[in-house]
Amino acid sequence: MTGREAMKLWELYPEVRNLYEEYNGILLEDDSDWKELTEKAEQLITESMGTGMKGALVLYTVAELERIAKKNFN
Q1: Which DSSP letter does residue 70 get?
Q2: pTM over 0.90
Q3: Is residue 39 a contact partner of residue 32, using CB atoms and an 8 Å limit?
Q4: Quick one: which of 30, 38, 42, 74 has the fewest CB in 10 Å?
Q5: CB proximity list for 36: less than 8 A, separation 6 or greater
Q6: How confident is the model at residue 53 (pLDDT cuts 50, 70, 90)?
Q7: What does DSSP assign to residue 25?
Q8: E strands in the chain
Q9: What whole-number distance in Å separates Cα of residue 16 and Cα of residue 22?
Q10: pLDDT for residue 6
C-alpha cells in the first residue's frame, strides 16, 4: 500500500487515521505507549472482522508508525 492509498482509505476509516495521528510521535522506548497502541489496533481489527480492508489498513498504519519511530531513533 502506498502512502497515497492509505490517505484515501483513512478518509473511509477515520478511526484508523485517528490512531495514526494520536501515535505519530511515538518513540521506540515508549513501552507503555506501544502497549496502548497495540491494544487499540487489536480492538479495531477485531471490530473489522467483516471488513478485511480496514484490518489491513490498521496493520499498515502500525507498521508505518514503527517505521517512523525507527527513523527518528537513528
Answers
A1: H
A2: no
A3: no
A4: 74
A5: none
A6: confident
A7: T
A8: none
A9: 10
A10: 85
Q: Amino acid identity of 27?
A: L
Report in angstroms the alpha-carbon separations of 52 from 25, 40, 74.
27, 17, 34
Name the amino acid, one letter, at 46: T
What nine digits make up the cell of 54?
480496514
What pLDDT shows up at residue 51?
A: 65
pLDDT reported for residue 50: 60
Please, which residues have CB within 8 angstroms of residue 14's CB and are 6 or more apart in sequence? Answer: none
CB 34 within 8 A of CB 73: no
Neighbours of 9 (CB within 10 A): 18
Give me the pLDDT at residue 18, please.
Answer: 95
